[in-house]
Amino acid sequence: MHASQTAATDTNDAIIPRRNWLSRMSSAVMALGLTLGYGMLGTVMGLFLYPKRDSSRTWQFLSDLGSFAIGDSVTYEAPAGQKIVVTRLANNGTPEDFIALSSICPHLGCQVHWQSNNDRFFCPCHNGAFDKSGQPVSGPPKDSNKPLPKYPLMVEGGLLFIEVPTEALV
Ligand code: FES
Question: Which of 85, 104, 107 for mutating ligand 1's site (highest number of atoms within 8 Å of CB)?
């Protein structure tokens, strides 16, 4: 046997364990990738099939549509204490007929109220005013561009419901 053949055999002996090691490592990485991939797929499918319920908000009955005339406005206090003014602006029998806005002025916290003759919400403390969608139109709320927070509404079976937080903000 020649010296060059011995050197080639030694090199092959070193390459084969390295190949085995690389092969095992790539198999392990592939297995890990498949496990993570299927795990994420399972998580996404689980969230799709069983969506998490948001327990921080709840739907509350407000009124039946028949006893809420256009232009009427009621003040509602949510279970967690939020004061909300709900106003009827149209008569199509849909949630879009109504608007539910926080009745607390975002300037310094005074009570706002609906003025149907001026088609606006008004805060008497510093003459702040908001349009019927709650956007500030004059006074300090306009200067700081702070709208009245809005609450979702739903109509079902001729009844009006409002979605409110179950906990007060601190
Ligand atoms: S508190 Fe409403 S405008 Fe100042």
Answer: 107
